[in-house]
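Sharing a chain and its predicted structure for anyone who wants a worked example. Both blocks are below, sequence first, tokens second.
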Amino acid sequence: MRLDNRPVATVAVSRVYAASVGDAEACWYDTGRWPDWVDGAARVLRVDDNWPRAGSSVVWESIPAGRGRVRETVSEYEPRAGTTAAVEDDSILGTQRVTFSPAPGGVEVELSLDYRMKRRTPVTPLIEWLFVRRPMTMSLTRTLERFGGVLR
């Protein structure tokens, strides 16, 4: 995938939980609980009334050492299946997807992010490969692990 005709990196993680698709989806879209499980989220600043429908957005703020102000704008929403959202913060532009799929014993939740660094130099691909991709994957992993704790 490419955003703005520039190279994009992709990170993705998934977990299976002993819960229903409906319960996982309801928990995921409860933005009031995001600071409990979204890695680095300190507070949700604004949620559109029609969240998580296409066109709606959420703006949240990270902890001081985090991503700053993050805006997520839904481009696709399918009930009981997931969402695709444009994501932007001070450092990245991206497309984030969350999917909910029935799995043996519960639900599989997959979270992925296609992103590109906003500030690019000739060495950006190397820096991204060495210093950004792994922390991004770890952040998505922490988010899903914490989500599982809240979902139970």
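Comments welcome. The mean pLDDT is 90.
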